[in-house]
Specification:
The protein has nine helices and eight strands. The chain is of the alpha/beta class and about 270 residues long. The protein has an eight-stranded mixed β-sheet with strand order 2-1-3-4-6-5-8-7, with helices on both faces. The chain is globular, with a radius of gyration of 19 Å. About 40% of the residues are buried.
């Protein structure tokens, strides 16, 4: 990508065409990501997008930048390792609610805690879309389907609560249909130091046609963002799941990547000589 002229959002799109279902919210998330990169004028060779498994995790193939499509639930350790090795890169990790909060749940907790300077975008549609509609960790307990008659009866995973409690330095929620708002939120998340988490409500109208109503359910959060985690916790515990905006802008310094610098490989090997 030439940097002699301003970069446009279309410059970040690869020649691979998305294969998401018609009406999938992930199309808009892809557009918001490319618009955010363009607004920040990031050279494509300085950007890496890492993903796991799932519909939303196809993102790296659709972008003209570095990317890695990893295994299920392991996008965050991959992104963390890359950022530690190449702190000069802008690292964005992308995935869905199944990939991120089920098999990847433990990695989510510790990525928040480590507070390494990367951005995690989770497209939450409250269902396993790629594997034909099973309930996910964020599915409502009474959602009735052929695969969960009468619902699961399980309390849903609350991503923003967990992110805040685990130490994420930036916590926000967006709606995929609001491209301008999502773009602005991603710009702020990328620029904010430390671990930034953005939950994007991204409807799966194939297996959750009821989610077409999300465009009418979402609304701006009634309170401003705060840098006080206790105040943010009180606010999020009364959340209806459709408040859109930044919940928390933390002031904690990002993890000092110079601490992760290792010596020569030979020196490390000698530590384990018998």
């Amino acid at each position: 990508m030439s940097q002699t002229a301003p970069v446009k959002s279309s410059d970040y799109k690869s020649e691979v065409k998305p294969v998401w279902c018609p009406g999938c919210g992930d199309y808009h998330v892809l557009l918001s990501i490319t618009k955010a990169f363009a607004a920040l004028q990031l050279p494509s060779e300085d950007v890496a997008v890492i993903s796991g498994i799932g519909c939303s995790s196809r993102l790296p193939a659709y972008l003209d930048c570095y990317g890695f499509h990893g295994v299920h639930g392991r996008a965050l350790p991959l992104g963390t390792g890359l950022k530690v090795a190449r702190p000069d890169l802008t690292v964005l990790v992308a995935g869905g609610d199944g990939d991120g909060f089920s098999i990847g749940g433990n990695h989510f907790l510790h990525a928040c805690r480590r507070n390494i300077d990367l951005t995690y975008v989770v497209m939450n549609n409250r269902v396993y879309g790629m594997t034909k509609g099973q309930p996910s960790p964020t599915t409502e307990p009474d959602w009735d389907s052929a695969l969960s008659p009468g619902g699961t009866g399980l309390s849903p995973f609350h991503p923003l609560v967990i992110a805040l409690a685990s130490g994420a330095n930036f916590v926000a929620r967006a709606f995929s249909g609001d491209i301008k708002g999502t773009t602005g939120m991603l710009i702020e998340a990328i620029e904010h130091p430390g671990f930034s988490f953005v939950e994007v409500l991204s409807p799966c109208v194939t297996f959750r046609p009821d989610q077409r109503g999300w465009k009418n359910a979402v609304h701006p959060a009634p309170v401003e963002a705060t840098d006080d985690p206790a105040r943010a916790a009180r606010r999020i515990m009364s959340d209806d799941g459709f408040n859109i905006g930044v919940l928390y802008r933390g002031t904690r310094s990002a993890y000092d990547l110079s601490r992760a610098e290792a010596g020569e490989v030979g020196e490390f090997d000698r530590m384990f000589e018998i």
